[in-house]
Each structure stands twice: as structure tokens, then as C-alpha cells.
Amino acid sequence: MKRILVLGALFFVAAISDAMAAAAPCSSIGNRLTAGEITGRFQNQLVCAQKMGAITGNDRWAEEHRSSGELWEQGKGTTSKVHPPTKVGTWKSVEGTKVKGKSANDDLVRYDYSGGSTFNWSVFEKNVAGTKTYTFCTSNESTVIATATLKTPNPSSTNACGF
């Protein structure tokens, strides 16, 4: 009986540990950006993002975040006649609802795509050896969606993100 109780307690502790790790893995990645920081970093930048293990176009994207709030898919490059940049929707940073007495940041970036899909992501910034990377996570910080780098858009016949 003792052995069953000990094993049951170990499974319970393991389950709680797994649940806690799954609840907020993004918070250990870097600093969560505020709405103002998201705007400051992303405005007029090309966001080169991809999901873990991405090999197809659906798992990686290159989107220009214009200061007007327009969101443009980079395509094959700004001068490409085959797949030129295309407006795909809008973007904006959103201030979360702050709870009185709490300092937690729950600001997001919101993407409204033409055709009706809307996504809200928390954004984390990490600086490694002078290179900044950004991680998009679910709004509750429980799941990593994609990682990204930023590039300055420029007229080119190739996609500055390399895909």
C-alpha cells in the first residue's frame, strides 16, 4: 500500500510539474514586449518568422509591418513580377487589460488577415550576442507559435528573409 501511495504521489508531482511547465514556457524565453515596444520594433520592418522545423510556405512568413497599420506579404521581393508583395491585412499592438495592483504585462500584437482570420500573440524579445530574436506565443504565454528576426524592407528581386 505504501508503494502505491508513493508512486501515486510521484505521478501527481510529475503531472503538476508538467502542467506548470506547459502553462508558461514563453516567459522563460526573454522579455515580454509592451504594446509600445511592439510598435517601436515592428513598425516599418519586415518580420521574418517561422515555426519550429518549418519547411513550407505555410510554416514561415515574411510580412512587412507598415506604419499605416497595413500588413504586406513580401512574396518573392518588391520588384518581382511573379510574386510581388501583396497586402494581406492589418496589424497593431494592443494594450491588455491591466489588473489593479498587478504589474503583469499582457499586451499583444493583433493580426487581422483579409478573409477573416484574426490572431493575437504575446511577443518576447531575446538578445543573444547582439542579435535580437522575437518569439510569438499564445496570449496566455503557454505555447510558442514561431520565432522571428527583423529586417529593413528594401527594393529587391528577392525576399530579404531568404524564403
Helix content: 10-25%
Low-confidence stretches are: 1-23
Number of strands: 9
* Binned strand content: 35-45%
Radius of gyration: 19 Å
**What structural class do you assign from the helix and strand content?**
alpha+beta
> What is the helix tally?
2
Polypeptide structure, described:
- With about 160 residues, the protein is an alpha+beta fold.
- It has one domain.
- The protein has an 8-stranded antiparallel β-barrel.
- A hairpin with a 4-residue loop joins strand 3 and strand 4.
- The radius of gyration is 19 Å and the shape is globular.
Keywords:
163 residues, alpha+beta, eight-stranded antiparallel beta barrel, disordered N terminus
What is the secondary structure topology, with strand pairs?
Layout: H1 2-23, E1 31-32, H2 35-42, E2 45-50, E3 60-65, E4 70-73, E5 86-94, E6 108-113, E7 118-128, E8 131-138, E9 144-151
Antiparallel strand pairs: 1-7, 2-3, 2-9, 3-4, 4-5, 5-6, 6-7, 7-8, 8-9
Briefly characterize the structure.
With 163 residues, the protein is of the alpha+beta class. The protein is built from 2 helices and 9 strands, in the order H-E-H-E-E-E-E-E-E-E-E. Helices cover 18% and strands 37% of the residues.
